[in-house]
Amino acid sequence: MTTTKGTYPQEFDYVRTLPDKYWWYIREWNKVSRKWIATDVFVPYSRWNDPGWPFGEGKTKTYPAPMKHTYLPKSGNNAHIVSSSWLEYTKIINHSLGFLSLLVIDGGWINKASNKEYPTGHQIPYPPPYNPKVEGITSIENYHKVEERHNGSTRIAAFDYKQSPPDPTIVNPTTHPYLFNHFTSIDAEGNIGHAPQGYNTYIPILGKDGNAWIVDEQLEHGAIPPKEEPMEIKRAWGVDISKWNGNYNDDGIDEGFPKLSFVILKAWDGAYDRTSDTVSTFKEQYASVEPIPHKGGYGWYQTEQSPITQADLVLFIADKGLFDFMPVDYESYLNEINEKTANDLVKFVEHFRSRSPLKVPIYTNGWILTMLRAWLGTWLDTVDIWFAGGNIYNTPLISPIADTVIPDIPETFTFWQFSADKNLVADELDFSIWEDESLDVNVFNGTEEELAVYLNKHGTTPPPEEDRFSEGWNSALDNMNTHSALIRKV
């Protein structure tokens, strides 16, 4: 396990939290000195042998390794009733399953002695019926900023639990790692891991009046935090955009963000063609993303309209040669999600792919995907899924995630939209949109080379631009049944 990845300013002094022999080594009664002393023999903590303990032998085989801090040197318990705002802040900065693991009684942060309403191992629901009492802890192998030293103790940088939490997009474990407990565990061999259930979790250092003291014998002073390691990127990354994102500038997205292998543009709404010359913004936007190797044209499927009419429009757009694949967005916005419309979606997909070699992934979220599986059965295995959701969906991402992370769902996905609406990495610096706008970020479940194979691209040349955007296409479109009342997604 590595320690918290993030930015540690070099001008600060740091301490590293050390394993506490009181917990992790045999303590024997010395009859001569008449006190307990620690030996050098590491043994499993006795609780591991308790079959009722949720993290014991036969389960994780690890024990959370918390280290208490106090609001005075060597005294003053920092345990407190955590506020709803700090709970929500902790939820935002964590993986969803990791946050839930923090809510387990006797997992380290929330202990049974202070929360007797719940049995050991019980996970407090979120939001909780009452705000639990949490421990003032860091854990071993963390690096913290030194604020002062006094009376054999060191005060580390901390938040005041009586104050409101900061903006998580500005202050978080990546930007300020020394303000957080990267919660660790230890196993029978002394290996350091993630606590309390193997998830990578973070707890803000919360102290009374912002004070968090740790005795010096538990600290290594003058510690040098590790440098942030480059993120390993294996999968192909991309973005999906609509008219609201404006034109691609390519002026900042490569700074700390993977290069884009694909872009998915909004191409149609129901029976409305957004690639038409009558849509003034599309041609310019399309030209701006020309350097991105692979392009998809997605559209919003409208359940009140004919699936065949919509499929014919998508075939018409596909024939322009603008796109390498044509995802269809089946969502609940202004739509009816039921068994009938699900079977209409099947008609749409089958009509399209019987007439075009292009892939047509279905874009949808978790609950709709569950319903589609119930309604459509094994047919769903014949199509590709562009999944919106998962463990870190729609959270304020401030740096790219390691692309080994995948959605915590049973379905296999082809594309995964893991950040929508609140992504602050690929932001308005890269598209001509206004301040504080965001961008949907996606990964393909494979490398860029595998994406090219998936798209069946063999160096073919698309039609000339003047053909793809000519008035002839518009005349053909005018002959289609597009004069009906259309609902346009805005």
Q: Would you mind describing this structure in some detail?
A:
InterPro entries: GH, Glyco_hydro_25. Belongs to the glycosyl hydrolase 25 family. GO terms for molecular function: lysozyme activity. With 490 residues, this protein is of the alpha/beta class. The protein has 2 domains: 14-221, no CATH class; 236-478, TIM Barrel (Alpha-Beta Barrel). The protein is built from 10 helices and 29 strands. The protein has helices at 21-24, 84-92, 96-102, 280-288, 307-318, 339-353, 366-376, 448-454, 465-468, 471-478; strands at residues 14-17, 25-30, 35-42, 62-64, 66-68, 70-72, 75-77, 80-81, 133-134, 137-139, 143-150, 153-156, 159-160, 180-182, 184-187, 192-194, 202-204, 206-207, 213-215, 219-221, 236-241, 260-269, 272-273, 294-300, 328-329, 362-365, 385-388, 415-419, 440-444. The strands form 9 sheets. It has an 8-stranded mixed barrel with strand order 21-22-24-25-26-27-28-29. A 5-stranded antiparallel β-sheet has the order 19-12-11-1-20, with no helix packed on it. Strand 26, helix 7 (366-376) and strand 27 (385-388) form a beta-alpha-beta unit.
